């Protein structure tokens, strides 16, 4: 575990020499002045993309395990070169965090080659399912599933990726009738722009005045191992019922979907990517259309932002990440949590991750 030890701010400062790192130098200055509202939940390794769930009365977190493998920083996300997953648990919010060790390694997944990005988990009939994206041996992201007997794993991967799956960032939501739905999709490195009618091809981005690229949803099969239906794109609309446009960078979808239900209404939240916000939209159906509502989390230090929302003993919590522990290195992030305020109408009070 020593090789995972998070580098302290000072040691990174001594290494910042290249152009890419010049940006990090600026971040370093900024990082040292920021006053975060919450501390990293895990400091012995870098962790990101926290998907939180309550299983057996405890909070379980399924994050990415960030590592520095010397890959270049680029829009393709090559620097996110993660190779395994650890599962963490807390007896109570903000309590002691247990690391349950390695739950799945890319070398044990026959269909996957690299880049174990943001995972999620679900429970059904006493079995636990870890859903994860990775690049297959052709360099194409797909989503796989691995099965465990306990929330913390270990998880045994299915030999093939989920049929018909593509792109990244699976988030699995259990509806009140027991059905499970997977929401997924991410732009740029996540390859959503390369998919048209179920076929992978050249990337194609819409013009600013055209409808934005949309995330997808599919109901899961009873055995939780496949899609029960072809994935369908989700509409996210503005106050006039019009699809959000590609140029609407502060509101349109980029990656990192999550679903929670509040007073029977469905709340779909996600990252806006290049404007670095977590925002949300609501609907009376798990398939949408979802009407844009507002911001949940203002930008954090580091390029990416990724979250989950969970209720524990009547209170709501936001799990998120930032790069303060690594002094702003985008690919070396740390998971955090904060209490969320939701009013009786489901309206969420936006969180500022740093004090003014
Ligand atoms: O962790 C790798 C990628 O960064 C995730 O899949 C995205 O959501 C972003 O957080």
UniProtKB/TrEMBL annotation:
Residues 1-13 have a biased composition (Basic and acidic residues). Keywords: Carbohydrate metabolism, Glycosidase, Hydrolase, Polysaccharide degradation, Xylan degradation. Residues 1-22 are annotated as: Disordered. Gene3D superfamilies: Glycosyl hydrolase domain, family 43. Pfam families: Glyco_hydro_43. The keyword Hydrolase applies. The keyword Cytoplasm does not apply. Belongs to the glycosyl hydrolase 43 family. This is Alpha-N-arabinofuranosidase. It comes from Agarivorans gilvus. The gene is xsa.
